UniProtKB/TrEMBL annotation:
<comment type="subunit">
    <text>Homotetramer.</text>
</comment>
<keyword id="KW-0408">Iron</keyword>
<feature type="active site" description="Proton acceptor">
    <location>
        <position position="179"/>
    </location>
</feature>
<protein>
    <recommendedName>
        <fullName>2,3-dihydroxyphenylpropionate/2,3-dihydroxicinnamic acid 1,2-dioxygenase</fullName>
        <ecNumber>1.13.11.16</ecNumber>
    </recommendedName>
</protein>
<keyword id="KW-0058">Aromatic hydrocarbons catabolism</keyword>
<keyword id="KW-0560">Oxidoreductase</keyword>
<comment type="function">
    <text>Catalyzes the non-heme iron(II)-dependent oxidative cleavage of 2,3-dihydroxyphenylpropionic acid and 2,3-dihydroxicinnamic acid into 2-hydroxy-6-ketononadienedioate and 2-hydroxy-6-ketononatrienedioate, respectively.</text>
</comment>
<dbReference type="Pfam" id="PF02900">
    <property type="entry name" value="LigB"/>
</dbReference>
<comment type="pathway">
    <text>Aromatic compound metabolism; 3-phenylpropanoate degradation.</text>
</comment>
<feature type="active site" description="Proton donor">
    <location>
        <position position="115"/>
    </location>
</feature>
<comment type="similarity">
    <text>Belongs to the LigB/MhpB extradiol dioxygenase family.</text>
</comment>
<feature type="domain" description="Extradiol ring-cleavage dioxygenase class III enzyme subunit B">
    <location>
        <begin position="5"/>
        <end position="304"/>
    </location>
</feature>
<keyword id="KW-0223">Dioxygenase</keyword>
<dbReference type="GO" id="GO:0047070">
    <property type="term" value="F:3-carboxyethylcatechol 2,3-dioxygenase activity"/>
</dbReference>
<dbReference type="InterPro" id="IPR004183">
    <property type="entry name" value="Xdiol_dOase_suB"/>
</dbReference>
<dbReference type="InterPro" id="IPR023789">
    <property type="entry name" value="DHPP/DHXA_dioxygenase"/>
</dbReference>
Amino acid sequence: MSAVAVGLSHSPLIGKNDPAPDVIAAVDTAVDEARAFIRSFDPELVVLYAPDHYNGFFYKEMPPFCLATEANAVGDFGSAAGPLSVDTEAARAIALGVLDRGIDLTISARMTVDHGFVQPLEILFGGIDQVPVVPVFVNGVATPLGPVSRIRALGTAIGEAAAALDRRVLFLGSGGLSHDPPVPVLEGAPPRVADALIEGHPPTPEQRARGEQRVVQAGRDYAAGSTAMIPINPTWDNLVLDTLASGRPEDVDDWSVEWMGAEGGGSAHEVRTWIAAFASLAATGKYQMTSRFYRAIPEWIAGFAVATAVGER
Ligand SMILES: O=C(O)/C=C/c1cccc(O)c1O
Ligand SMILES: [Fe+2]
């Protein structure tokens, strides 16, 4: 088996509320590098770790993580809708391997996913049906959140289980880094919002459009400096990247949930997807980070990063 890892921030505001052209050009160059890295590796399987934003997972049942044997995208923020090309056989084999390693994995036979899964597939592969994928939801938004050490353990178990498949595997993490978008919070929510977060009634097209416009406007306000949202934290973001670059993802095990939120904002826990991806790669042997790009981009409400890593052979 050979393995690589890629981390890529996502934002539904890309293309809707863009920063200055030189920032876009720098992001494009970094993403082009990641695409070329992936093309030359030519993965036979992508294990995709991503969060959800109350489109697929609700408080009626909110697992800390969940592996899909089939998945459908809702098409939020103009992202693609429809089935992902899930490799069901590989997904089942990895799930069994993870359970055998003592991790209490939740399985979904029909996971609903949103831009968190779709955007990296569109950006890096040109669509949601271009490459065999095993989708793994990692909760990065819905409190209470468990210890990050468990996400590292999940990533390790998935890496070990994927190694047994004897294929070229890309571990891909989607999200982060520091950011504090206006994602609703159950605690203290008015009854109508709380009910939606618990039950997950599908929004009407008008309701979805209104919600998405609210996020776009939040990005505009954030970039203009007129907002109560927690600022992007480049120092913390670079600490996250330094830790993953060190080759010792286990160093995250003593990071507390509270500290991560205070440093990186309400959605900073999306970095759990990166931690899982790099822990998976580490489980296959020593690795090296081969490229790393970072920029604070308030227009996208994102400490935006792209990084690639290869296992040492
Ligand atoms: O409102 C949502 O569904 C998500 C918004 C968002 C904004 C910026 C960065 C992200 O990672 C997001 O998910
Ligand atoms: Fe997100």
